[in-house]
């Protein structure tokens, strides 16, 4: 069955693109395909540079092979063909052919510069740097830093990202040769990062295929079920689309409008998204078809719309004019959903040829690198038009907190977000996320307007500032120089990423110095209470590692985060202790602690009820310290108490590391015993602290994970700061450190969770 389904998949064309290549070709065949694609949109171009790049890359990669067994040169040639399909300049195509040579062969960037010039060398260097990024579904700071670098690369030259998208697309097309775990990792990365970026850049030609391929590996059952169900009634559906196209074509022609008309079944991920959002099966999704009408002029778009609405009954509320109000990625088209023959709904999209090119190629259609008569490449100033990219670059400059940057960015890259269109008093169109209110509108104009806002009028009437804007509303913001600025409550009201960022920036700016002082006081107080050796742990090398761990660029930002409640002072001090302990661990545990108590290594160790063997001491009461709650798998040490037996601590416990010299002689070697009865698994009490942005349902999401894993929760304590940061402390029983690590990893995937830590004394 799967083979039959795959055969059907290979017949399906992606929306707006050519069929995804299925069979491997020889390098020579691919090279000829590349040249023919270039000739198709630039018949007179000199392809000598492309030919030279192919020969150099082919020689450099030599006998290298991909996991499929095919020659490695197949990959860069395929990337170049994707770039040629986007009708990009020959420098970009040459860089696509050479994009892996610096990373994988002996060729250097300087050699590429010497052979092909500064432009190509710069592109290859940019792609090489992006190749060194790596993705982690758990490490927020890694994802954020990767994305920062990616957007900085965009700012320098958008073509670097276009090459990277083409590289990822071909890797996804050949993902079947990876092991299953790697397939899911790459597919998740593609769906989280690459497909949303392609969408935001307006490159539907690439975005759609990345979506479908990601779905194929992340949810194969869903994907193949969709393919199978769509294939079952293929003939019937194709006949329906053909009849509509012919009927529309004859009416459009009779109206004197020149047009190209085609029809298609919507792509798989689009159908899957409808199923999820509308909670329906594929059989219950009716508007699976779209008819596209491409005309010559803007006037023809609206004329064609009139013809269509005369032919078929439009569904109320399903008309969208993206020509008058383009999407942020420059997409323009008229969308309308109609009732066809036999009551079958279908969608019609109407646009001009120029609009169609932008819809397919997005930013690639606007960043044209054209040759002037002197042979020098010139770049259009279209970058000024992409407000979204400018906004991202502003965030990069303003935000030192990687976690906040990633949270804002992922909200902005949300594939399921819709827009609402409204007007300023001057008649300018504002495009805001669906659900936005007048505060969002104010900050979309300028941060100074939002910060001084005291009220709003909508359609001439006074409204509350949390009024949700509707399509077509005319919004006027009332400001006052006497305004004290935004309220912290606004962060829970606004919808747009832009507004949240600007409100946060306002609070950080006016209160950063106070927060720095408060943070320093909290850390000093904590260190005194725990008798922490401040001089030993507050050293530049340890502080730098802690800054990197939490995603901050300077120590003042760490202090400010502690001051306003974003981080706990104990988190910072414990991380510094860990860094100190890494460097001094051997000296402390081996020389100062464990060797102070001599015991016979050959002495038999009877089974302990506690599951702990204490070196040299039998029949002694053993208890687990509550300050660090060790579990099997942790490195442990015993402490001989006065009259209460031996207390067991983790070796990285703050209380152990801060013991006075006189008490260090009471430390004794301890280890976990292996259970002889595999069916009897001892459970141990431990405690974790979860830091999160507070929201409705977060406790439900967290406790659900414990329930799914049959983990007994002993206690839950939750508190929320004025800034909306939740601190949740949970005590529970667990069998081992490995089980605890898996639990923590799962909790970190929950939306709004910032960090999860174990208590360390």
TrEMBL record:
Keyword Transferase: yes
Gene Ontology biological process terms from the UniProt entry: guanosine tetraphosphate biosynthetic process
SUPFAM superfamilies: ACT-like (SSF55021), HD-domain/PDEase-like (SSF109604), Nucleotidyltransferase (SSF81301), TGS-like (SSF81271)
SMART domains named among the record's database cross-references: HDc (SM00471), RelA_SpoT (SM00954)
InterPro entries with a match to the protein in the record: ACT-like_dom_sf, ACT_dom, Beta-grasp_dom_sf, HD/PDEase_dom, HD_domain, NT_sf, RelA/Spo_fam, RelA/SpoT_AH_RIS
Residue ranges of domain HD in the record: 72-172
Coiled-coil region(s): none
Positions of the TGS domain: 418-479
Pfam family, one: RelA_AH_RIS
Superkingdom of origin organism: Bacteria
Any one GO cellular component localisation term in the record: plasma membrane
Top EC class, one word: transferase
Catalytic activity: GTP + ATP = guanosine 3'-diphosphate 5'-triphosphate + AMP
Entry EC no(s): 2.7.6.5
Pathway this chain belongs to: Purine metabolism; ppGpp biosynthesis; ppGpp from GTP: step 1/2
Domain ACT, residue spans: 687-761
Keywords: Kinase, Transferase
GO MF term set: GTP diphosphokinase activity; kinase activity
Task performed by this protein: In eubacteria ppGpp (guanosine 3'-diphosphate 5'-diphosphate) is a mediator of the stringent response that coordinates a variety of cellular activities in response to changes in nutritional abundance.
PANTHER family: GTP PYROPHOSPHOKINASE (PTHR21262:SF31), GUANOSINE-3',5'-BIS DIPHOSPHATE 3'-PYROPHOSPHOHYDROLASE (PTHR21262)
Protein family: Belongs to the relA/spoT family.
Name of the protein in question: GTP diphosphokinase
The organism's taxonomic lineage, starting at the top: Bacteria, Bacillati, Bacillota, Clostridia, Lachnospirales
């Amino acid at each position: 069955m799967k083979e039959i389904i795959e055969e059907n998949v290979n017949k399906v064309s992606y929306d707006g693109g050519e069929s995804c290549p299925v069979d491997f070709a020889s390098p020579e065949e691919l090279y000829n395909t590349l040249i023919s694609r270039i000739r198709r949109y630039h018949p007179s171009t000199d392809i000598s540079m492309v030919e030279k790049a192919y020969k150099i890359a082919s020689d450099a990669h030599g006998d290298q092979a991909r996991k499929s067994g095919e020659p490695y040169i197949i990959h860069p040639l395929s990337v170049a063909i994707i770039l040629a399909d986007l009708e990009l300049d020959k420098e970009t195509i040459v860089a696509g052919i050479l994009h892996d040579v610096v990373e994988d062969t002996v060729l250097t960037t300087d050699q590429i510069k010497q052979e092909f010039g500064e432009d190509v060398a710069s592109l290859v260097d940019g792609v090489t740097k992006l190749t060194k990024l790596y993705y982690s579904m758990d490490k927020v700071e890694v994802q954020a830093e990767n994305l920062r670098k990616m957007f900085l690369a965009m700012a320098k030259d958008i073509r670097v990202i276009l090459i990277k998208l083409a590289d990822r697309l071909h890797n996804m097309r050949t993902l079947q040769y990876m092991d299953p775990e790697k397939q899911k990792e790459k597919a998740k990365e593609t769906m989280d990062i690459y497909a949303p970026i392609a969408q935001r850049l307006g490159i539907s030609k690439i975005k759609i295929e990345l979506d479908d391929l990601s779905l194929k590996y992340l949810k194969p059952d869903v994907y193949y079920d969709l393919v199978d169900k769509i294939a079952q009634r293929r003939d019937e559906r194709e006949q329906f689309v053909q009849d509509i196209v012919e009927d529309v074509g004859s009416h459009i022609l009779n109206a004197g409008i020149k047009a190209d008309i085609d029809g298609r079944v919507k792509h798989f991920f689009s159908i899957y998204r409808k199923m999820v959002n509308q909670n329906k099966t594929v059989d219950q999704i009716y508007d699976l078809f779209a008819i596209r009408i491409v005309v010559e002029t803007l006037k023809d778009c609206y004329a064609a719309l009139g013809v269509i609405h005369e032919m078929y009954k439009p569904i109320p509320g399903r008309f969208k004019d993206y020509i008058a109000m383009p999407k942020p990625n420059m997409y323009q088209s008229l969308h309308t959903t109609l009732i066809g023959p036999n009551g079958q709904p279908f969608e019609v999209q109407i646009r001009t040829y120029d609009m169609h090119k932008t819809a397919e190629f997005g930013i690639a259609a606007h960043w044209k690198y054209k040759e002037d008569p002197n042979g020098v490449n010139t770049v259009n100033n279209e970058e000024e038009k992409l407000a979204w990219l400018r906004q991202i670059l502003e965030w990069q400059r303003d935000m030192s907190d990687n976690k906040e940057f990633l949270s804002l960015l992922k909200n902005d890259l949300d594939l399921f977000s819709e827009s609402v269109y409204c007007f300023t008093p001057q008649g300018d169109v504002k495009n805001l996320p669906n659900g936005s209110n007048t505060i969002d509108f104010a900050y979309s104009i300028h941060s100074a307007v939002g910060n001084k806002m005291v009220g709003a009028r909508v359609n001439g009437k006074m409204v509350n500032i949390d009024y949700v804007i509707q399509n077509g509303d005319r919004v006027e913001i009332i400001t006052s120089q006497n305004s004290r600025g935004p309220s912290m409550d606004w962060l829970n009201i606004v919808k747009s990423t832009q507004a949240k960022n600007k409100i946060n920036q306002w609070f950080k700016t006016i209160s950063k110095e106070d927060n720095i002082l408060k943070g320093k006081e909290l850390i000093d107080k904590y260190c005194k209470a725990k008798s922490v050796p401040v001089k030993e742990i507050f050293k530049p090398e340890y502080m730098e590692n802690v800054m990197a761990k939490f995603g901050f660029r300077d120590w003042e930002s760490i202090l400010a985060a502690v001051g306003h409640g974003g981080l706990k002072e104990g988190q910072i001090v414990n991380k510094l202790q860990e860094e100190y302990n890494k460097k001094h661990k051997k000296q402390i545990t081996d020389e100062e602690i464990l060797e102070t108590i001599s015991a016979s290594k050959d002495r038999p160790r009877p089974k302990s009820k506690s599951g702990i063997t204490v070196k040299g001491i039998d029949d002694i009461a053993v208890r687990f310290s509550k300050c660090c709650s060790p579990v099997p798998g942790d490195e442990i040490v015993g402490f001989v108490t006065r009259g209460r037996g031996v207390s067991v601590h983790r070796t990285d416990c703050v209380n152990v590391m801060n013991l006075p010299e006189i008490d260090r002689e009471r430390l004794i070697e301890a280890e976990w015993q292996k259970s002889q009865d595999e069916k009897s698994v001892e459970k141990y009490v431990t405690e974790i602290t979860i830091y999160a942005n507070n929201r409705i349902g977060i406790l439900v999401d967290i406790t659900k994970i414990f329930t799914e894993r049959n983990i007994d929760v002993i206690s839950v304590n939750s508190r929320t700061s004025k800034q909306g940061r939740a601190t949740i402390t949970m005590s529970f029983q667990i069998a081992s450190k490995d089980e605890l690590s898996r639990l923590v990893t799962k909790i970190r995937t929950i939306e709004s969770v910032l960090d999860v830590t174990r208590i360390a004394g």
